[in-house]
Amino acid sequence: MKVTSIYTPDTQTKQLIPLVTSHIPAGFPSPADDFVDLKLDLNEHMVKHPAATFFVKVSGDSMIGAGIHDDDILVVDRSVQATNNSIIVAALHGELMVKRYKIVQGKTFLYPENTAYKPVQVTTEMEFAVWGVVTYVIHKAV
């Protein structure tokens, strides 16, 4: 899965959205206006480190098993340390891609979440860096 665009969050702008705090049953209409208690700013919930956070738009299908689809927007925090099984944006030979970061028997691998693709073992000869850790996935509901 390739990164096609990179954006920085605008944390100066507040876009407050009504937050419904009661449970809403699926399939049964409810007058939700009666339950709006708070206003929600998505920056407060999705952007923990504004100076190190980016939104990236991705293309491809190699991460569909992780719920990341073509044209999704990912929230990526560059200040978060990648750990085993993190979903990361990796810089491999100058190309940004999204993969699952795994350490297996002391070796680093970039795993896709689609069986049509094979994992890549990262070797010392490769130009590799963890660009950031994916913290949220934003996509349109189907």
Rg, rounded, reads 18 Å
The geometry reads as globular
How many helix segments? 1
Category from helices, strands and their pairing? mainly beta
Annotation, overall tally of beta strands: 10
Spatial gap, N to C terminus: 20 Å
| Helix fraction by DSSP (H/I, runs of at least 4) | under 10%
**H/E element sequence:** EEEHEEEEEEE
Largest sheet: 8 strands, antiparallel
Please tell me the overall pLDDT: 85
The order of strands across the largest sheet is 1-4-5-10-6-7-8-9
Share of residues in strands: over 45%
Low-confidence stretches: none
Describe this structure in words.
The chain is mainly beta and 142 residues long. The chain contains one helix and ten strands, in the order βββαβββββββ. The protein has one helix at residues 42-46, and strands at residues 2-7, 16-20, 36-41, 53-59, 73-77, 87-92, 95-104, 107-111, 120-122, 128-138. The strands form two sheets. The protein has an eight-stranded antiparallel sheet with strand order 1-4-5-10-6-7-8-9, with no helix packed on it. β7 and β8 (107-111) form a beta hairpin. The longest helix is centred in the N-terminal third of the chain and has 5 residues, at 42-46. The two termini are 20 Å apart.
